[in-house]
């Protein structure tokens, strides 16, 4: 296994699989924030201290195996160029913060890319587990297993009253962020998301874009996650999130049924217009590609479009990002060059999927 494995395989193996409610839920993620005992947090640590954390993690874990995941690949951020890091961000394997702001950061990645352990991001350690569809409980179980595995060799900063100690006060307690990535085009089309988002926020959850905090909900894809980490167990947090997600699934399905009943021909026209744009355009910007891909994915789910895999949305949403386009081009591209290459790539992939 090598860096090229993660850069050249555009779609993680977990993204190719079908999961529960995968017509609406693209993925489930659990992330645990941890810090090493008696070490200053990354937000205030020196470069020497950051290097020490990286070497500690390399020494203990770079050649160890974990259950069926096998040996994890150890990648150091300063050994990667900006484009390589951007590709890993676009695949959700590392965070934008680790890529952009962590001079002495690193990560441990499993070959199937379900597991990413980020080092010296906002905290010393961030364990991330990703599963297809609605599998929050399974993601939590794997994250807890990895947490115990790490703690066999290192000691965490922990307080009996406050729980796990973290750089940001909002993560103190369990240190856990659970989230699901959802495709909600019908709720957007029927303008229900404008009232749903404030209601979700009042429940202690937050709605973000495809790449988390500060990102845009491209292609009608939203990330729903918990805000509270203190005062509840990991299981309670996951169960609360599951309850809301299941309601959103029901509302999205109901909105889709209503659109089919009241505006079937208009909806079908929208789907096939977007398909036509994707299949024939010579220039394609990121936002337009995301919007059209969302329409086509909805058309596949509703049975308007046949013989195209549902996973095409996962694949093309990654492939058409700026980092991947430049990775395949072998170097930097101007925005207009990326738009031309994006359109060409989409046309080719659609032909392969027919």
Describe the structure.
The chain has 354 residues and is of the alpha+beta class. It has helices at residues 3-8, 47-61, 82-90, 96-101, 136-151, 185-189, 193-202, 234-280, 286-302, 312-319, 322-329, 335-353; strands at residues 25-34, 65-66, 70-71, 73-76, 106-109, 115-119, 125-132, 158-159, 163-164, 176-183, 205-208, 221-226. The strands form three sheets. The protein has an eight-stranded antiparallel beta sheet with strand order 4-5-6-7-1-10-12-11, covered by helices on one side. A two-stranded antiparallel ribbon has the order 2-3. It has a two-stranded antiparallel sheet with strand order 8-9. Helix 3 packs across helix 11 (322-329), helix 8 packs across helix 9 (286-302) and helix 9 (286-302) packs antiparallel against helix 10 (312-319). The longest helix has 47 residues, at 234-280. The protein is globular, with a radius of gyration of 21 Å. The mean pLDDT is 88.
In short:
By secondary structure, this protein is α+β, with helices and mostly antiparallel strands.
Task: Supply Rg.
Answer: 21 Å
Distance between the termini: 32 Å
Helix content: 40-55%
What does the average pLDDT come to?
88
* DSSP strand count: 12
| SSE string | HEHEEEHHEEEHEEEHHEEHHHHH
Number of helices: 12
In this structure, how is the largest beta sheet organized?
A: 8 strands, antiparallel
Class based on secondary structure composition and strand pairing? alpha+beta
Which oligomeric state applies?
single chain
What proportion strand?
Answer: 15-25%
Given as residue ranges, the uncertain stretches (5+ residues, pLDDT < 50) are none
Q: Which geometry do the CA atoms define?
A: globular
Query: Largest sheet, order of strands side by side?
Result: 4-5-6-7-1-10-12-11
